[in-house]
Amino acid sequence: MRFHGALRFRQDSGGWRRYLALVAAVAGDDEEVAGVHCSWLDPVHPVLAPVSRPRKAPGRIHGLAVRFGEPIKVNTLLVGDGIETVLSLVTVRQHGALRTTVPSGTFAAAALSAGSLGAFVPPSHIARLIIAQDRDKAGGLAARRLQLRCTRLGIASAVLLPAGNDFNDDLRSFGPEPLATRLAPLVPT
Question: The CATH number of 66-186 is which of 3.90.1110.10, 3.90.550.10, 3.30.1330.90, 3.40.1360.10?
Answer without folding.
Answer: 3.40.1360.10
